């Protein structure tokens, strides 16, 4: 383990399912994401270039960012399986939300953000989002974190 691996191993932060449609729905588990501006409000998600969702997101004008409930069901579905081999959306309840973006019914909170920019950052692409439609009930609902999903093997090809 390198020094930086030891540093990042101490971190714990929320994980998300990011969804896109262009026009087919796609979604994946994302550990690299966060608010990057307060005023104006901005959020960045980084999608692995190896992931099926990456190709769809490159064509999508907006992305959905979902916080996950504490159970592992959605994380295992969207993180442990790949859209190259299965239809993840056939295995969970969802609907077309604002701007046509897939919204997961079991997500305790989510937002749809317009893609303002896409930046190549090595093995991931950063998507700068402008939050446009937000569903957040405002309660202190527990959400799934990075450490909670450390045992899930990535479903996308290496």
From TrEMBL:
<dbReference type="InterPro" id="IPR050268">
    <property type="entry name" value="NADH-dep_flavin_reductase"/>
</dbReference>
<dbReference type="GO" id="GO:0042602">
    <property type="term" value="F:riboflavin reductase (NADPH) activity"/>
</dbReference>
<dbReference type="InterPro" id="IPR002563">
    <property type="entry name" value="Flavin_Rdtase-like_dom"/>
</dbReference>
<keyword id="KW-0560">Oxidoreductase</keyword>
<dbReference type="Pfam" id="PF01613">
    <property type="entry name" value="Flavin_Reduct"/>
</dbReference>
<protein>
    <submittedName>
        <fullName>Flavin oxidoreductase</fullName>
    </submittedName>
</protein>
<dbReference type="GO" id="GO:0010181">
    <property type="term" value="F:FMN binding"/>
</dbReference>
<dbReference type="InterPro" id="IPR012349">
    <property type="entry name" value="Split_barrel_FMN-bd"/>
</dbReference>
<feature type="domain" description="Flavin reductase like">
    <location>
        <begin position="8"/>
        <end position="152"/>
    </location>
</feature>
């Amino acid at each position: 383990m390198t020094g930086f691996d030891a540093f990042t191993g101490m971190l714990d932060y929320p994980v998300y399912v990011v969804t896109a449609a262009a026009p087919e729905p796609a979604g994946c588990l994302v550990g690299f994401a966060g608010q990057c501006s307060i005023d104006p409000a901005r959020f960045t998600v980084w999608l692995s270039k190896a992931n099926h969702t990456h190709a769809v997101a490159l064509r999508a004008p907006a992305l959905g960012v979902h916080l996950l409930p504490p159970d592992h069901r959605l994380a295992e579905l969207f993180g442990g399986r790949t859209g190259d081999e299965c239809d993840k959306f056939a295995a969970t309840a969802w609907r077309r939300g604002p701007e046509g973006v897939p919204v997961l019914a079991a997500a305790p909170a989510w937002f749809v953000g317009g893609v303002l920019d896409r930046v190549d950052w090595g093995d991931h692409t950063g998507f700068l989002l402008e939050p446009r439609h937000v569903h957040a009930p405002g309660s202190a609902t527990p959400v799934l974190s990075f450490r909670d999903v450390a045992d899930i093997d990535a479903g996308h090809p290496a």
